[in-house]
Design brief:
The complex is a heterodimer of chains A (about 100) and B (about 280). Chain A has about 100 residues and is mainly α. Chain A has helices at about 10-35, 45-55, 65-70. Chain A is about 45% helix and about 0% strand. Chain A is extended and about 50 Å long. Chain B is of the alpha/beta class and about 280 residues long. Chain B is globular and about 50 Å long. In chain B, helix 3 (about 80-90) packs parallel to helix 5 (about 115-130), helix 8 packs across helix 9 (about 225-235) and helix 9 (about 225-235) crosses helix 10. Classes of the chains: A mainly alpha (about 100), B alpha/beta (about 280).
Chain lengths: ~100, ~280
């Protein structure tokens, strides 16, 4: 575990942030439920596969969760691509092994 | 508290935003040249944009007591056509003579393509030729890690002093490498992507408060020109004294930007620090 650098103690950190993050967790749950209730369109989506793959990192008992999730969602190739055919990014590596 | 927002696109903001920022304590901003949300149809459109950044915005800002500085370049989203990009780059040296120009920026990569890389390298060379500082845009989302590394490698290959380069839009997976390699790091506070105020304060708590700043990067998309003072409130809420916000949003920007002779530290910066 990292050394304590947040000035708040554990109780105050929970008091300050719990409700906000309880709500965010329910938003993720409701989003996945909404997907279950959707029909038509593509059978699966690389973004959802990636999302489901990183969710377990939240409770795997190790620290640096944000960094590890961002790394898991990143393109890990190192050579420039031949050409940019779009300006947009989708939020996960479209060629990733999810 | 007096503060500097070192990355905001005021050409996309209203005069009301200038007023609200001034009321919140903003004393200076720096505005990098960026993508307007659509591709310009001619290099002449960039000449107009550079006039806006060097002549028009400083006057709008001054009406609210805010010092306005800018950075000039062609942004990576319009760098996929190298012939067009080079025509724009050719316009830059003339505008570097304006007295509010701090350097070349925000250059960098978007999709990490070969053409983007070529134009990035040419603009690094332009900065070197004119002894200009550099502000770097790093790519979005899944492209950020790779693009940040490619950009830092290009700067190293060009033998640029990393202390005169700020790598912007860092997040948890890029900040350590940026700081370890001697560059300055910028955190952008966006509602949907990049950093929230909470995560920016987390990053400061984990990686320290040296060579790092926060900015709103307020533009035409979902963004908040008051996100810098909102992040200061997050620091306060956690029990950090006011000296942390002053370090991140006043002393650090002044230390970095003062490497350009065009930058004049805002007089409010001389105000005494209120002890915690
Ligand atoms: Zn920007």
């Amino acid at each position: 575990m990292p050394s304590p650098t947040c000035p708040l103690d554990v109780g105050k950190t929970v008091d300050l942030y719990f409700m906000e993050h309880r709500a965010k967790l329910l938003d993720i749950a409701a989003f996945l439920d909404r997907l279950d209730r959707s029909s038509g369109g593509p059978a699966d989506d690389v973004r959802i596969r990636a999302l489901k793959q990183v969710i377990p990192l939240l409770i795997d008992g190790q620290g640096n969760r944000t960094q590890r999730i961002l790394e898991r969602l990143s393109d890990h190739t190192s050579e420039p691509i031949p050409a940019a055919h779009t300006k947009a990014a989708i939020g996960v590596d479209p060629h990733g092994d999810y | 508290m007096a503060y500097i927002d070192p990355h905001i696109h005021m050409v996309s903001r209203t005069t009301d935003d200038y007023r609200r920022m001034a009321e919140a304590g903003c004393v200076a901003i720096t505005e990098p040249a960026f993508w307007a949300g659509f591709d310009r149809s001619s290099p002449a459109a960039f000449a107009d944009y550079f006039r806006q950044l060097t002549q028009v915005e400083p006057k709008r800002a001054a009406a609210y007591g805010i010092d306005h500085y800018c950075w000039l370049c062609i942004n990576p989203k319009e760098a996929e056509d190298p012939v067009f990009a080079r025509e724009v780059i050719a316009l830059v040296p003339e505008f570097l003579k304006a007295d509010n120009v701090l350097g070349i920026g925000e250059i960098g990569l978007n999709k990490n393509s070969k053409n983007e890389m070529a134009i990035l390298e040419e603009q690094i060379e332009l900065a070197k030729q004119h002894n200009q500082m550099i502000l770097v845009h790093t790519p979005h989302l899944e492209d950020k890690l790779k693009g940040t590394r490619l950009t830092m490698d290009a700067l190293k290959n060009a033998d640029v002093d990393p202390g005169r380069v700020l790598i912007d839009h860092v997040e948890e997976h890029t900040v350590a490498e940026v700081l370890d390699r001697g560059f300055w790091a910028g955190m952008t506070l966006y509602p949907d992507s990049k950093c929230t105020p909470q995560r920016a304060v987390d990053i400061i708590e984990c990686f320290g408060n040296e060579r790092i700043w926060i900015n709103s990067a307020g533009d035409w998309g979902p963004s908040d020109p008051l996100s810098v003072p909102k992040c200061h409130r997050e620091m306060h809420r956690r029990g950090h004294g006011p000296s942390l916000a002053e370090k991140i949003s006043l002393h650090n920007p002044i230390a970095f930007l003062s490497q350009s002779s065009a930058f004049k530290p805002p007089c409010e910066a001389a105000r005494p620090t209120v002890s915690a």
